[in-house]
Amino acid sequence: MYESATDQDGDRAAHHVPALEGRVAALRAEGARLDPPAPLGIDERHVGRRAGRQRARRDAEDAGRPGRRMSIAGFAGICAVAPALPLDASIVRHPTAYEDVRPAVREFERRNAPGEPIYVFAASVPAWAFYTTDWSAPDTSRLARMARLASSGGPAFENAAPRGRAIRIGEGDSLAFPFRRGREIIGLYHGAQDRHATGLVQQVPDTNWTTNEARRIRNAATPTVWLLMSHTYGLERSLRGALELCVDRMFQRDGVVLARFTSAPRSSECSQDAALAPRGQR
Predict the structure, then answer these.
(1) Does residue 277 belong to any structural domain of this protein?
(2) Domain contains 275
(3) Rounded to 5 degrees, what angle do the CA atoms 193, 87, 72 make?
(4) Using CA atoms, how far apart are residues 88 and 35, in angstroms rounded to an integer?
(5) How far is CA 25 from each of CA 3, 13, 21, rounded to the nearest angstrom?
(6) CA 140 – CA 195 distance, rounded (Å)
(7) Which of 134, 162, 231, 253 shows the smallest number of beta carbons within 10 Å?
(8) Are 54 and 139 within one domain?
(9) Cis ω for the linkage preceding 103 (within 30 of 0)
(10) Could you read off the pLDDT of 223-276 as tens digits, one per residue?
(11) Over the stretch 165-188, which tens digit does the pLDDT of each residue have?
């Protein structure tokens, strides 16, 4: 019976030999993929030089692997976007805090009388066009015109470079178009270009900008005229003093100014204390 048990064990062992050999082969293959310990070398009284060279070689090989390259690229990407994160986070928390033109447009739509024109400051043109468009039936010709005027190279591009010449009196007179019950007068850019690294290239508008734009606004008065300004630098305040018109109504919020001026005040008092707000954070 003992021998019989031994034979049975032998049969079982023989039966499991192929499986055992398979496991050993798998372990051998796995071991071949592992990096062996770095050999300790003694060379000219320096211990471990051979190991150091091999480690440096492996580090160089690791640096070229896709995973390592992706890590470097990811770190570089974080460095590129990190400076803008505080502003982006603030905009997410307060989406209307950065010179939102929409409330001023709604105020104009509630208050303007038939025939009253509005002067739209160059930097306000894109937002004005957007919020005054009926997107269920958009006026595509008007949108195309606005895009042409306010794009780079257009006469109302908000961040255009200085002209290098004085504005001619009468320049921009053709930039007045029918709009609903009145007219929209598109402002000319002032030339005080803002560069990210160095700031404004000049601290005053181009020569004659104030005089010419004030003349355009005065000539449009019927006897009232609206003015919409946003994203200003502060230097545009000179336009208020040059208008020689009385402030009839003022709406001001978050750096956006909407004002109605009149050349025929209803009383002897004429409000002259309206100030055009300087640029807030963009």
Answers:
(1) no
(2) no
(3) 100
(4) 46
(5) 32, 18, 6
(6) 32
(7) 134
(8) no
(9) no
(10) 999 999 998 888 777 887 888 899 988 998 888 999 999 987 654 456 554 444
(11) 999 999 999 999 999 999 999 999
